[in-house]
Amino acid sequence: MIDLYYWPTPNGHKITLFLEEAGLDYTIVPVDIGKGDQFRPEFLAFSPNNRMPAIIDSEPADGGEPITVFESGAILVYLAEKTGRFLPADARGRKTVLEWLFWQVGGLGPMAGQNHHFGLYAPEKLPYAIERYVKETNRLYGVMDRRLAQFEFLGGSDYSIADMAAYPWVVPWKNQQQNLDDFPHLKRWFEAIGARAATARAYEHGERIKRQPFTEEEKARLFGQTAASVRGLAG
């Protein structure tokens, strides 16, 4: 059994995509990031970056004590290795999938995240910042489109953890001021993943715990963190 500490954000959706595809038994433990659940000492004990998702695997492959994993990319690799699925066993295939996984965690996620922040959440609309991240998101969509012109999935011919990592960051393409019609190969890939039964099940979890938009107090908690403020929130 796996306990998934989750909130319906793109990074949270990555993990439910994998768990639903693999058919693993898991329990969702909601981490309401607006209320500050991510700062609770018991959560920080195994997710020291005060971010979700994180997992606790009470039945690890080695039969030992429960294993905790934080950071969405690390969780995907851990689960792929645990199950032997969605990550090729051969060196070249594994290398390629990991390249695209790290491309997402180091590029698409952070850039699209800043796009969301300055376009949707920032108290002051800063044209330079908005343009900067909208353009960079656009460039990254172009990178995916070129790759997907050659291959069915980011890692090659098979669906993998690289696709699971990238897909949730394309779901809010309208909020990112992008147009999928400008990227036909990306659009084909996006629609194919969206049509998978496991994808629908994964996103249903998010719908069940969907909440109202963040209040101003919650935005300040989320976007105004410093080392000192995190220590205060964590007690």
TrEMBL record:
Gene3D superfamilies assigned to the protein according to its UniProt record, in alphabetical order: 1.20.1050.10, Glutaredoxin
Residue ranges of every copy of the GST N-terminal domain listed in the record: 1-87
Residue span(s) of domain GST C-terminal: 90-213
Matches recorded under InterPro entries: Glutathione-S-Trfase_C-like (IPR010987), Glutathione-S-Trfase_C_sf (IPR036282), Glutathione_S-Trfase (IPR040079), Glutathione_S-Trfase_N (IPR004045), Thioredoxin-like_sf (IPR036249)
PANTHER family per record: DISULFIDE-BOND OXIDOREDUCTASE YFCG, GLUTATHIONE S-TRANSFERASE-RELATED
Name under which the protein is recorded: Glutathione S-transferase N-terminal domain-containing protein
Higher taxonomy: Bacteria, Pseudomonadati, Pseudomonadota, Betaproteobacteria, Burkholderiales
